[in-house]
Amino acid sequence: MSSLPSQLAARIEAVAGIDPELRAATKPQFGHYQSNVALRLAKSEGKPPREIAQRIVAEVDLSDLCETPEVAGPGFINFRLRNDVLAGTATQILEDPRSGVTSTEHPQTVVIDYSSPNVAKQMHVGHLRTTIIGDCFNRVLSAVGNMVIPQNHIGDWGTQFGMLIEEILDEGIDASTLTLDESDALYKRAAARFREDPEFATRARARVVVFQGGDEESLEIWRQLIDTSKAGFNEAYDRLNVLLTDADLAGESTYNDDLPVVVRELEESGVAVIDNGALCVFVEGFSAPLIIRKSDGGYGYATTDLAAIRRRVRDLHADRIIYVTDARQAGHFAQVFAVARKAGYLPDNVQAEHVGYGMVLGTDGKPFKTRDGSAASLSSLLDAAEEEASPAVALAAIKYADLSNGLQKDYVFDANRMVQTTGDTGPYLQYAHARCCQVLRNAEAIDDAHVGPITVLAEPAEQTLALTLSRFGEVVANLAADLQPHKLCTYLFELATAYSTFYEQCPVLKSEGAVRDSRLGLCAATRNVLRTGLNLLGIEAPERM
Ligand code: ARG
């Protein structure tokens, strides 16, 4: 089922020759949708816009969908959907377990690289954002019928393991007993010593070589650090109620054996060249080359990312790869994608996108810190929200606050504001959903309620609610394409608002007969869409609050 506005748009385009770019009407008296197509055609056709608008209205047959379209002002065309059409669509949403979410015509294999914390370190507030945002993409892209392969690219390799292992051996710690908190503290001690103690720094560097050369004692400690970290990450994922599991782990070390292969391929094809002892790829538009192999023979973050792209395309058969990290890594990914294209690892028909997000700020407008002034860990953030509300409400608050602004923007973590049940918050939407459930429970308590069909849309508030319901599928489809969750948030907020107005103006339980059935149908359809929509954001929708 394609949505009502897209059906409208297709028919108008057939007559006008260009996309009518339908917009929601700015005022109810203008109908439901508006188009400026005639104004845009006026230049090329050399005719007054109103004349073109009248021609389009005369030629296009929309009688099964709309009232007769009206030409307004300088040449806008206003469309008002027929009530019976809106009622039919609302009834479909009521009966459809997917609430009008339709599958894409061309299902894809989509790799989403998200969360990706670093071993032996606490997840911090940035990891909170990538985990919540990536999880939302996972849910939405799956819901519209794609095959999603999450990839948790944890930082489980690199030179930091030299100092970590050396510190563990010095302190005589049994790494298998460490918690993630303790590893984090150990990491800080090791890093401080590395900075201050040249003898330790030398040993740590030597340890990197021994460890990466396959020394069993070192590898054993490394594995233990990974295991304790994974347990800590999983605790956070449970607390956040996200979809990630151990099956999605594909850390940096996954690609170790591929790195020399990548180097060989890039050298043989001439894509990479030696520059000052380092193996580099120069791509246009970047001030510095991408370093594939450092002059000391080591590989860095970028080489691993190239190797990962190569496998995601070749072995996972990705049609689209999405990376969710903080916005500061935008340049890194732009360059990695350019090099991967040049190397043939990323063919033109595979889409690669970096979705960057802004910082989490405190109410003082500075990067969020905990009360004792240290950089905030993910769990301290959750703790702060849970001081204000129950865990379920606190989590809804955090996720919604994270997703409801443009992702690129920094957002202010104001625990007190975001748990409020009024205003544009996650808990407000949870309440709106619970209120729909309550009305339906009350109706059942009175008699054996008929919920739907939705037939009577006499009141403007009923029409607005039905129209809003009918837009859901399209909002989800757009989110799958443009990866902008705030638009779904805005939509759900509008739906909750339309429902409130409807509920104030149209008695449900006190009405009778077909009107009552229809209004109960609107309540149930609203409940379904709110629940489905919240779930796509990763937010639970309890039936009672
Ligand atoms: N571990 C990195 C960090 O914490 C994020 C990794 C993102 N994914 C990637 N393929 N580079 O910033």
Secondary structure blueprint with pairings:
Elements lengths: L3 H13 L6 E2 L8 E3 L1 H9 L3 H11 L10 E3 L3 E4 L3 H13 L13 E5 L11 H19 L3 E5 L8 H12 L8 H17 L1 H15 L3 H25 L18 H10 L4 E3 L2 E4 L8 E4 L7 H14 L5 E7 L3 H14 L7 E7 L2 E2 L16 H9 L4 H13 L7 E2 L2 H4 L7 H21 L13 H11 L1 H11 L2 H21 L7 H24 L9
Parallel strand pairs: 5-6, 5-10, 10-11, 12-13
Antiparallel strand pairs: 1-2, 2-4, 3-4, 7-8, 8-9
Helix pairs in contact: 2-3, 4-17, 4-20, 6-7, 6-8, 7-8, 8-9, 11-12, 16-20, 17-19, 17-20, 18-19, 19-20
The site of arginine has 10 residues, from α11 and β10.
Overview of the molecule:
This protein is of the alpha/beta class. Among the domains are: 78 residues, Arginyl tRNA synthetase N-terminal domain (Gyrase A, domain 2), CATH 3.30.1360; 86 residues, no CATH class; 58 residues, no CATH class; 111 residues, Isoleucyl-tRNA Synthetase, Domain 1, CATH 1.10.730. The chain is 52% helix and 9% strand. It has a four-stranded antiparallel beta sheet with strand order 1-2-4-3, covered by helices on one side. A four-stranded parallel beta sheet has the order 6-5-10-11, with helices on both faces. Helix 4 crosses helix 20 and helix 6 packs across helix 7. The protein is globular, with a radius of gyration of 28 Å.
